[in-house]
Amino acid sequence: MTIPNTLLSGLGALLPDLVSLYKDLHAHPELSFQEHRTAAVVAERLRAQGWDVTEGVGRTGVVGVLRSGDGPTVLLRADMDALPVKEETGLPYASTARAVTDDGREVPVMHACGHDVHVTALLGTCALLAADRDAWRGTVVAVFQPAEEVGGAPVMLEDGFAERFPRPDVCLGQHTAPVPVGYAGSRPGTIMSSSDSLRVVLKGRGGHGSAPEGTVDPVVLAAAVVLRLQTVVSREVAAADMAVVTVGSLHAGTKENIIPDTAELKINIRADSPDVRRRVMDAVERIVRLESAVSGAAEPEIDHFQSYPLTHNDPEATARTSDVLAEAMGGRFLTLPRPLTGSEDFGQFGQALGVPSVFWFFGTTDPALFTQFDPSRLSSPPTGVPGSHSGHFAPLAEPSVETGVRLMTTAAAHWLGTPGV
After folding, report:
1. Percent of the chain with pLDDT over 70
2. How does strand 298-308 pair with strand 194-203?
3. pLDDT band at 152 (very low <50, low <70, confident <90, very high)
4. Which residue among 55, 87, 262, 369 sits deepest, i.e. has the most Cβ atoms within 10 Å of its Cβ?
């Protein structure tokens, strides 16, 4: 179907309020499962639009349901959480927020991954759908998900999502990308990698820094592990495959002249197929255990504390959706040549509910920052252009919000029914 002109005709009037909302959300970020203010804003706006609203789904999630006669059911999803990152953008609405993590640390908080754009865009789509129910038929399930950064989707599903809300015919989601505003893209099949996070505790034997011969130094052991892990991808993964191994956290000791008993590493693993994922996971665990043994350390603790599966786009549903989104983007909707190395939990809704899902990306970065742009590298900004999870990540409020609303509304309308059809 072609999107009813009446739906998007109301977008211009909404934009000033939506841009103001985006700046407010950006200035008030909240960590995963702490999105109480954001959830309250979402719930209040949905109720004012006439949605049936349920709060506290998966702890801090919000789900809105809107019906307009008989027709398909479409799930639309936006994630709400921010990151423990200090904002360095210098924007007039930059975040100065701080929060306490689950382990008691006080950290700066920033929307460094575009989730504030996602929330604003979905609220804009919800407003357009609610304002013109005569233009479509069916049911819309708007999911405002908590804690995407730590796997909030399965928490919502475990909270009885499938039993509490209408079963969709398709799940639709989108994400910002650090590329020029005006470009968007997707691909059939695998679009994002799997992600596995490990917490490793290396167990040495502490003592005085002046007498290392009486110790098993876990700091030296940790250094050996970190360096050896760099060989997993370069020497154990074929060039045609994709994998990433990152040690993002290493903590040991309290003082320069005390050799500690333990060192803790947090390791993240990305892969583009189940086979590569298994081989890399096995290699990482082998290296950790054998480096410990060679150093004379005790058996290490390895805790697999977080996992995201591959994000998979249904080929037929993606082809249908991409056609209408390409029209909405004036032809600047790209087919990505390969899966992205980032990961998502959005796909778990479609997997758990047994329905197709479609996920796409859209640019939100100032085109003036690009001397050149390779459309095939939608997730890899050139040097000097801040990417996701950077303290300098700064989407253009206008027209990023408008683009997000236009794309989500176009996709939703394509899957919903039309009056008399």
Report:
1. 97
2. antiparallel
3. very high
4. 87
pTM passes above 0.85: yes
Dihedral pair phi/psi, residue 361, rounded to 5°: -120, 150
State the chain's mean pLDDT as an integer: 94
Residue 156 backbone phi and psi in degrees, to 5:
-65, -40
Whether residue 269 contacts residue 247, with contact meaning beta carbons closer than 8 Å, is answered with no
Q: Is the pLDDT of residue 141 over 60?
A: yes
Backbone angles phi, psi at 227, to 5 degrees: -65, -40
Q: Which residue has the tokens 């799940």?
A: 171
Residue 1 pLDDT level (bands cut at 50, 70, 90):
very low
> Where would I find the H helices in 144-217?
153-158, 161-164
Q: Cβ distance 376 to 334 under 8 Å?
A: yes
Nearest to 176 by CA among 395, 412, 420, 417: 395
C-alpha 385/C-alpha 379 separation (Å) is 11
Q: Nearest Cα to 406, choosing from 81, 3, 116?
A: 3
65 forms bridges with which residues in the sheet? 52, 141
Q: How many angstroms separate the CA atoms of 114 and 134, rounded? A: 32
Residues 6+ apart with CB under 8 A from 238: none
Q: Which residue has the tokens 């899902």?
A: 357
DSSP letter for 382, please.
P
Average pLDDT over residues 285-310: 96
Of residues 75 and 377, more confidently modeled: 75
Do the beta carbons of residue 409 and residue 8 sit within 8 Å?
Answer: yes
Q: What is the pLDDT of residue 338?
A: 86
Q: Where are the alpha helices (DSSP H) in 102-247?
A: 115-131, 153-158, 161-164, 218-236
Q: What is the 3-state secondary structure (H, E, C) of 42-53?
A: HHHHHHHHCCEE
Distance CA 291, CA 221 (A): 7
Residues in the chain: 421
Q: Beta-carbon neighbour count of residue 63 at 10 Å?
A: 26
pLDDT, mean of residues 181-187 = 93
DSSP code of residue 368: G
H/E element, 65: strand 61-68
Distances from the Cα of 352 to the Cα of 58, 143, 152, 251, 348, angstroms: 15, 15, 14, 37, 6
